[in-house]
Amino acid sequence: MSISNLSSSETQEVRTPLLNDTVDDCVDYKGNPVCRYNSGGWRSASFIIGVEVAERFAYYGISSNLITYLTGPLGQSTVTAAKNVNVWSGTASLLPLFGAFVADSFLGRCRTIIIASLIYILGLGLLTLSAMLPTSECQSDSMSCSSNTLQVILLFIALYLVALGQGGHKPCVQAFGADQFDRQDTKECKAKSSFFNWWYFFMSSGILVSLLVLTYIQDNLSWSLGFGIPCIMMICALIIFLLGSKKYRYSVKREGNNALLRIAQVFVAAFRNWRFTPSSIASEEEGRGTIPHQSYEQFKFLNNALLTTDGSKEDQKVCTFRDVEEAKAVLRLIPIWTTCLGYAIVFPQSSTFFVKQAATMDRSISPGFEIPAASLESFSSISMILCIAIYDRLFVPVARALTRKPSGIAMLQRIGTGLFLSAVSIAFAALVEMKRLEIAQESGLVNEPNVTVPMSVWWLVPSYVLFGVADVFTMVGLQELFYDQVPSDLKSVGLSLYLSIFGVGKFLSSFLISVIEKATGGIGCYSWFDNNLNRAHLDYFYWILAALSVVELIMYMYYTRFYIYSRHERI
Predict the structure, then answer these.
(1) Under 8 Å CB-to-CB from 188, ≥6 apart: which residues?
(2) How many angstroms separate the CA atoms of 506 and 91, rounded?
């Protein structure tokens, strides 16, 4: 009897802490301390992942085939359409900086997601309306039409509303999803590492369905229907997000100044105290175990922020060691951000020039049925889905056993692998384009842009597949790195910095296209981006990108040798 009572008592002691176990720096939807057992984790993350699937379905339902819409119904030239797509998608990738700042400084991630979703829905609604307007003139001997002014104005207002909505939605949703896992808990720490993999897995699934379904609808049925379905999906996404409100964990901001302001104060204070050398601080704090020596030695000029204007160290100082460490963590990311720009310049080609290439090639599967050119991007999504599953379920457990790191390999190693695969992908695309031009010339189709080149479109598939695998390594690695290495109340800003790589990369891609267009499109010369791709030279452009990718990879490998992970780094 006593043994039975003892067992019952012990069981009660074990269970009680679980029921009362709260998560540090998090509250529930009412603002109360949140219990671990009935909040967060995969249960809450599943709602947020569902939102991301719907949002990516909607976004790629527009972006993947936008160049076809601009060169077809709107009658724009290939160069103009490519630049418009790059500028729009670049803006969409930069606006998360603004959205993340608003979220982390004022509204919080949850409110920002809701407001951004409403803006997103408004933009998609106007985009659908613009597609319903009739074009002014269609020529019977041409594949394109000219558009009316109202249609063009409404289209671009809608597109940039979508970009603004995505700017608030994209960085906050993923950061909010990662917030559902507590890095202080061993089990949840491993789950958070997997979260970034499965986030990309389901996101790629949404993109795949969008590429297969919406591109077919847009090319063969109706552009207005093809834009209207994404609008409906975003409405569903908002509903799904609101359904999980009671189960979410909401991060509590650190007391004191805004994190961005704290980091700015570190740089200002370090600049003011540039004459002093705070050598005494190092030995004192190392004795306390406050800071690691290796981290202290890097960016030593910022250590001056720990001193007052007379060079002494006082208890009441503006900047703390934690503030300095946060500033250093952000500063360490700058070389990574810079050396990944080459990857970001290559990234948009799969949704612009690759699509135009595919449109000139043999896309028939059976007599009377051709696959839409933009649907070839689905091979990138398929390769992402397969690669993520293999990576997370097979590679990571093996690597984890060998390295004793929760994520298997270091984040920087993962990113570098993707950079290498991206270079291989664009080099292969250049070889395929060289072959396509050769076949076009041999077949006498140089001046026949509307005649299909007798070369199978499947030759483009390896490049799409390699792009997809590269994304699994580089994109997911960058997401995890920029989330993990920034201060806790700057997670949305961290993810927006990762997204800004691709925004700047797309602007640089557009700039590079403009420069090459002017340099090669003189009198009596055919531009590398001529509307007739059989007279163009996309292969030259791809070789430039391949060379840029190699240089970028070398610089990346050099700078990562000196990277020091933040102290809370998990790998």
Answers:
(1) 40, 41, 181, 182
(2) 9
3-state SS assignment for residue 23: strand
Q: Which of 211, 209, 204 is nearest to 375 (CA)?
A: 211
> What's residue 141's pLDDT?
44
251, β-bridge pairs: 26
Which tens digit of pLDDT belongs to each residue from 249-269? Answer: 887 766 655 667 777 888 888
Which is nearest to 449 in space by CA: 77, 99, 41?
77
Largest CA distance in the chain: 102
Alpha-carbon span 351 to 65, nearest angstrom: 7
**Contact of 207 with 383, CB cutoff 8 Å:** no
DSSP for 296-350 reads: HHTTGGGGGGGS-TTS---SS-SS-HHHHHHHHHHHHHHHHHHHTHHHHHHGGGG
Least confident of 14-23, 54-63, 329-338, 450-459: 14-23
Residue with the larger pLDDT of the pair 282 and 230: 230
Q: What is the pLDDT of residues 87-117, one digit of tens each?
A: 888 788 788 888 888 887 778 888 899 999 9
Identify residue 496 by its one-letter amino acid code: S
CA distance 356 to 452: 12
CA distance 89 to 497: 15
Asked if 259 and 490 touch (Cβ cutoff 8 Å), the reply is yes
Cβ neighbours, 10 Å, residue 177? 24
- How do beta strands 22-27 and 33-35 pair? antiparallel
Instruction: Express each pLDDT in 229-244 by its tens digit.
Output: 999 989 988 998 898 8
**Cα–Cα nearest to 178, from 304, 59, 26, 60:** 26
Dihedral sign, Cα of residue 231, residue 232, residue 236, residue 238: positive
d(CA 210, CA 61): 5
Where does residue 549 rank: exposed (0-12), middle (13-18), buried (19+ CB within 10 A)? buried
Contact (CB, 8 A) for 467 and 422: yes
Report the alpha-carbon distance of residue 411 to residue 553 in Å, rounded: 15
Token readout for 362 is: 């043999």
Q: Per DSSP, what are the bridge partners of residue 362?
A: 456
* Closest alpha carbon to 181 in 45, 28, 52: 45
